[in-house]
Amino acid sequence: MQTIKLITLVALFAAGALVSPRVCRAGQAAATPSPTPEVEEEKKGPFSGEIGTALTNAYIFNGLVQDKDTFIAQPYVTLNLTLYEGEGFLNSAMFMLMLWSSVHDINLPAPTGHSNEAWFEQDGCDPARLRTRAEAMIADEAIHPMLRALWSPRLMEAIDWIAAESTRDRESGRTPILAEQKGEAEVGGVTLHGRVDRIDRLADGKLAIVDYKTGQAPAKKAVAEGFALQLGLLSLIARDGGFGDIKGESGAHEYWSLAKKNGRIGYRQSPDKDEGPEAFVARAHVQFAEAAAKWLLGDEPFQAKLNPAYAPYEDYDQLMRLEEWYGRD
């Protein structure tokens, strides 16, 4: 009803503008019309909200699902009600009944470990122990059987790729020395905080900054134009001793992507390949300092999409509460 009223008001206003006399002086253009129709405020009740349920817990799964070594199927039911948001008590209701299914050839062994972080802390990033850690993680009873069936084959292929790459690195004298560590440093007049996925010590004593990506690594042009500064800024923190006892110049910066490329899962990408590690870090420092001076220390207003080519989300999607949507704490 509100939309009809608004369209009517705009149409009447436009019609009035067309029949109204308009006087213009010679050499002057008529002013651009700027209609501002009044829009009646929508009436809302004092309370609004939604209630819903999803029948996807372990009890439903065990009671209603065909679950074999190579096949899994599960009913999924949701009921959502929107209450007293506009006129009336019940504004909308939605009921859906769906079925998840998967055909697979995975048969996981009994759990023998707990987390991937333990791979570094307890196993020293031993490649031979990585698959065992991963199998223990995905076999945990907290992991939904559907997710286990759908993602285990792809995850284990990625895990095996990481183990193979780590083995080759060890043979060349490269050793992991830090994982999942927070750090900070003064950069560009502000305190920069960061969390590094992994830092290795190269054979020549320099550091290698590693960032894992479940999807594709940032494009080369996005890195060059300052829209993917992560590895360079983590390198600055490491250079200034922001990760505790780990301090030094970086000799390598790498994305380890678990996405598929050339028909296989897993690949490395070095954003400093063309210009070298030293120039890569120096450029990241300059680009961050310029941004900090403009938007953090200056009074330049923030822009949702400074360059739309490097902003895959909509204008204000960075404000979304994604973790809540996924049902996590």
Tell me about this structure.
The protein has 329 residues and is α+β, with helices and mostly antiparallel strands. It folds into four domains: 1-42, no CATH class; 49-103, no CATH class; 117-169, no CATH class; 172-318, no CATH class. Helices cover 33% and strands 25% of the residues. The longest helix has 27 residues, at 145-171. The model is unreliable at 1-24, 47-69 and 104-114 (pLDDT under 50).
Helix and strand topology:
Blueprint: H1 2-19, E1 49-54, H2 58-64, E2 71-83, E3 90-103, H3 117-121, H4 127-138, H5 145-171, E4 175-187, E5 190-201, E6 207-213, H6 220-224, H7 230-239, E7 250-261, E8 264-269, H8 277-296, H9 322-325
Parallel strand pairs: 6-7
Antiparallel strand pairs: 1-2, 2-3, 4-5, 5-6, 7-8
Helix pairs in contact: 4-5, 7-8
Keywords:
single chain; alpha+beta; globular; 329 residues; 8 strands; 5-stranded mixed beta sheet; disordered N terminus
